[in-house]
TrEMBL record:
Protein name as it appears in the record: Uncharacterized conserved protein, contains ferritin-like DUF455 domain
Coiled coil: none
Amino acid sequence: MIAPATSLACAAQALATAEPRAKAAAALDAAVRLQAAPALDPARLAGLADRPARPARPILAPPGKVPRRRLGSPRGRIALLHALAHIEFNAIDLAFDMAARFACDIAEAGLDARAFVADWAQVGADEARHFLMLADRLEALGAAYGDLPAHDRLWEAALATRDDALARLAVAPMALEARGLDVTPGLIARLEAAGDARSAALLRVIYEDEIGHVAAGVRWFRRLCARRGLRPAAAFRKLIAERLAGGLKPPFNTEGRSAADLTADFYAETGRIMA
Ligand SMILES: [Fe+2]
Ligand SMILES: [Fe+2]
């Protein structure tokens, strides 16, 4: 039997673990503990680091220096799967950082911090499973996570939103993870066209889970907006303009976004802000 956690220390433990498979294991363990926890003690996390622990590899490079992904060749598919594994690895940390960093703010806003932490612990467990699936697939193709350079854009986005739960919700789940919903169906089709049905099947699993992650972001964003007296779509557009370099990138997968309750008023015609 797993002892119930009385604080968010196990989320911090996942963040502080560097080795990739060990981080994924710590994330899965933390998710079970947090969902069984009768109470939270967020105050113990005053020392939460701005950057989680990371392995020596992959080395981080500017986005233009990361290998291109022509999917007709095994090397191209490895480059794509490596880039996706890196996204999932970052996503583990993003989920537990969300839980640990903002649980106090959620409680102070009069919302259910226990439910907030449980939601992001579930997301973190999904991301750990996604990472492990992709790492295993890379190994089946004769490669490994860490073999190629990777970019740091996801954690740069985390740093740009470390001061405000609403900004983090807007940028991480509602912009970056929603972008995953936009591009994944096309990647699945390209992998199938290249004859890699196994990788395509993994991306189908990930796509379905990611709808739930975007939905969690939208749910907490709407709740926090209600507490702050803000109109959600207008608040989202303002935060994206202020906090996300480059803004939102169409084309949008309206079907996938709608399944996550991310309605078109949040992102349509982003060039014209009607707040
Ligand atoms: Fe994921
Ligand atoms: Fe996700």
